[in-house]
Amino acid sequence: MSKLATRETDIPMEHNNAQVSSVSALVQPDANDQPIHAQDHNNAPPEGNHTANSPSKREVWLPRIKLAVAVTLPVFLETMDYTVVATAQPKIASVFNRLDLQSYIGTAYVLGSTIFLPIFASLADVFGRYWAMQASVIFFIVGSAISTGANNMEALLVGRGIAGIGAAGLITLVRIVLSDSASLDDNNAQNALMIIVYSAGYSVGPTIGGRLLKISWRWIFGINLPICAGSMILMALLLPKISKGPQPPQRLKSLPPHLHQTFWSQAGTGIFRDLLRLDLVGAAIFIVLGILILLGLNWGSTERWDQARVIVCLSVGVFLLIVFIIWEYLVDHSMDHLTCSEKILGNDMELQRIAGEEPSQEGALSNKLGLRFRISRATPRFTRITDPILPMNMFTSFDFVATNLATLSSGMVMLGIFYFVAIFFVVVAGKDSASSGAQLLYFAPGIGIGVVVSLALVKLVRQPRVAIFFSNIVLPIGLGLLGQALYDKKEKLIMGYMIMTGAGVGLGFGPLTYQARFTQPEEYVAVVVASSQFFRTLGGTIGLAQLSTVMYSRLRNHISSQITSGRITPLQGLQIQSALNSIETAGGILGLPDELKEVTIEAFRDGLRWAFFSLLPWLGISFLLCLFLSKIPAERLNPKQREGATTRQ
């Protein structure tokens, strides 16, 4: 294959007489240790002045503001596109006379923007943050251009899928760039600046979408093109000097220096070595399983769970998920036999390999270490420098698992409110799409309030878990009250509880990522941040499937109970069922006779209430788990303290 495919028995050893005095220190380096192939510090994000004099406010905030400005347009682009298109789907589908495919306008975008999230984290580590960001914008431009000029529904869906891939890059890379600083203060401040842009995008999106739709549906996608061009120019001016470049491979850090250098040199140079670092096999499996599972969830929630295509998609998707986990484990542990050999037998085994002999003690070592050692030796040699998309050892961290479950639950709530509160205002309150979109604006200020409070809490107590605790209290209370207010049809209370629920989401928006990020090794920053965003987006997809299933189940039960009680006839029940097919526009429901309309609205009020109630167990489990989050050491949160501790040692 390449020089990397050479047998480990042929690896030369340049330091034959060197003894490794502390292999465990090599296997688990100190958090301050720099990798052998450290990045160019000119590309590192500024972390302030480390001289004896404290940095001025200008020195602290100027890099933060530059970074925020550099990613402002990508963030605005991502959030605005999502909300603009959501309000225009029925109109666009009707232009092509394909109302049966209108949900796929959003589905194609969500598929791309969810599945490719972890993949862009790998691209950011291998090629650098700047080039990965530019690539994501190019994907978004191409997808938006195809959608703008589409002459049929199929071309439009292709364009939305490609734009979704670009959105995946924008979603994850912006957060990676903002999280690259090793300082909690920097992470906290930059998150606060970004939430302003997010709130603006979510707030103006529905309004802009409604106005553009009156001109031409093509402007819904065409408006992205000048914003993308401006974004690329702005990033080219600001981002290269303040963002990280290509990062050293994670896989080789556990090896002794001589093996580290040897493998790195044997991997070749240029694009070939970069491609070897990418987990292409894992990415391919992940893309296929992601498409299958997301399609299965989408079809099951909007149609029926017992359909053959739903069962096949979910079954094959789960099987591939197991395959993906096994593959990622193998890649993550493909160096174990080398590390264990060096640790237990030292250089004797390596000397035998250099002499071309089969190490005499390898059999005994294999028996001693067992299956894990043998599996590691059997893994493909091209995986030696491959960085796994999702390192399985991260899932052994309680903090990583607990925070990502809470993030997934928060994602369920966020997307659920955007879709299902809109259904309330259209179906129950009888508002048009533009007016219902305007009612959702109350959720955005709530998120802003939560973020401001979390910013103050994190700055005060110096621990993300405190803000997470309050988030896990406010969020379920607000959601439960919102569900009841929807049933009671009290619009003022609905608006108030939307603000409260948004505050619960905002309280945990940044701190959940901080907790996961600062409890994992520094080299996992990109993977941790991408994982957090992936679980938030996945939570939205799972949440929509669960909310739809519960709501429609309650709808059917309510209508059946009305038929049983004699309030409506079976024929009228079928008439209501037919009207539900136009739920996105509410045209069919509002056209029902008053008696049937009243029954339908009652059914929706009950269904929406229990749909939101069904999310409470997720939030309850997240609350219990997050009670046991670990306290992050102060020196881990502040690079100055860490540097001082190292100096004293």
Automatic annotation (TrEMBL):
Residues 33-56 are annotated as: Disordered. It is a multi-pass membrane protein. InterPro entries: MFS (IPR011701), MFS_dom (IPR020846), MFS_trans_sf (IPR036259). Residues 67-634 form the Major facilitator superfamily (MFS) profile domain. One of its GO terms (molecular function) is transmembrane transporter activity. The keyword Isomerase does not apply. It is found in: Membrane. The keyword Kinase does not apply. Keywords: Membrane, Transmembrane, Transmembrane helix. The chain crosses the membrane at residues 104-124, 130-150, 157-178, 190-208, 220-239, 280-299, 311-330, 400-428, 440-461, 467-487, 494-514, 610-630. This is Major facilitator superfamily (MFS) profile domain-containing protein. GO terms for cellular component: plasma membrane.
